Amino acid sequence: MRAGLLDPHLDVDLRATSGPRDDELSADLDLATLIDAVAGGDDEVAAVVRALLFATTTSVEAVRYRGEVYLDCLDHRSLVEELWALTTRAREIRQRSWRGIGVTSQAGEPLLRAAVDAPEA
């Protein structure tokens, strides 16, 4: 998975196991509460959030890049909210297609087009 908002060159392996101290840190900071709040009950989103929380860097450039992305998100909050709504609709469409209802395509451009064309809830 390309997590370009964290680092333009970062690939996150969602199948990676936790590091030796990740579980301890997660418990200390009660990150499960944060992950659950962001994921809203979606296991796929929870896995992504968890992987991204523990994707470390020692690169000063990557830390600066993350700060710039964060400031851009603050400056363009409505755009970020629209993007979140679009990805939420895409996930909902994909979940319906997995159950044999609605759109039959589960990948790429057809899924995105279906999400763009879907009425907002």
Describe this structure in words.
It is a single chain. 63% of the residues lie in helices and 0% in strands. The protein is built from 6 helices and no strands. It has helices at residues 22-29, 31-39, 43-53, 60-75, 77-98, 108-117. α5 (77-98) packs across α6 (108-117). The longest helix is centred in the last third of the chain and has 22 residues, at 77-98.
- Quaternary: single chain
Main β-sheet description:
none
User: Helical stretch count?
Assistant: 6
Strand content: under 5%
The total beta strand count reads 0
The helix/strand order is HHHHHH
Q: How much helix, percentage-wise, in residues?
A: 55-70%
Secondary structure class reads: mainly alpha
Unreliable spans are: none
Coarse morphology: globular
State the separation between the terminal residues, measured CA to CA: 28 Å
